[in-house]
Amino acid sequence: DYLAYSTPLPTTKFSAIYFAKLTFQTASQLEYPSICAPKTTSAWTFTNEVPSDISSHVVVAQEAIPHIDDLNPILKEMEAAYHRGSRSVAVTFTIPGAAVNFLYSFAKIQTLKFINNNKAAVESARDLVEYLSSTSLLTKPLLDQFIAQRIHSKIFGFHFTNFPLWKLSCLLGEEWLHEDVLNALSELLYVSTAARSDDDHPSILILPTS
Fold first, then answer.
1. Which of 57, 100, 142, 173 could connect to 138 by a Cys-Cys bridge, CB 3.0–4.6 Å?
2. How crowded is residue 172: how many other Cβ atoms within 10 Å of its Cβ?
3. Burial 3-35 (b: 16+ CB within 10 A, else e)
């Protein structure tokens, strides 16, 4: 069926399972594919050809990756195209000085999507490892334990939001958006604690960062 045909194998690099298992250690050493600017894809069409070349199924070294904005129109129509008999996508890139053609399997299109969607997570994970490795914030055993964690693992204790470990990188730059989120969660914690308390005021005091 379509789902089975368009899903990358679990062993495929940059598949959904690959990113789900990606650790900080691996992310810090990963040579991430280069993603093209939007509108680099000048043309595309579905074909009935079942690709046999390895490059049509997996990402090869130094391969340019279409931007998610260019992939979205393909992704929206891919299932319907599959039911009409299509099995691949012919894509034309407009690169300065040349037009280059590629043939992608449906599973590779999904892989390209995962690469786009996980770029921020991988870059943030790298930043965290670089920072923690250059400071004495964590002891060596704790640092080794941290970088062995999966970057998409959830931070325990956040009940109102999904906050994976890689998002800790927002604390490196003191980004106000994330800081406001933390302040809001702190306020919710304070109010919920007060509501459950028999005293007029809860036994804890949480101060916002600003």
1. 142
2. 13
3. eeebbbeeebebbbebbeebbbbbbbeeeebeb
Place of tokens 């923690």: 132
Query: At which residue do the structure tokens 């009409």 appear?
Result: 84
**Cβ atoms 148, 24 nearer than 8 A:** yes
- State pTM to two decimals: 0.81
**Strand locations in 36-87 (E):** 41-47, 64-65
What is the chain's length? 210
Angle between helices 106-117 and 119-133 (to 10 degrees): 40
pLDDT tens digits for range 86-117: 999 999 988 777 888 999 999 999 999 999 99
Structure confidence by residue, pLDDT tens digits, 170-192: 778 665 555 555 666 676 676 67
* Alpha carbon distance 176, 210 (integer Å): 10
Residue 88: how many other CB atoms lie within 10 Å: 23
Looking up tokens 């914690």 gives: 189
Distance of alpha carbon 53 from alpha carbon 15, whole angstroms: 18
Residues with Cβ within 8 Å of residue 129, at least 6 apart in sequence: 24, 25, 27, 28, 147
- Beta pairing class for 34-35 and 64-65: parallel
Q: Which amino acid is at 124?
A: S
Report the Cα 116 to chain-centroid distance in Å: 7
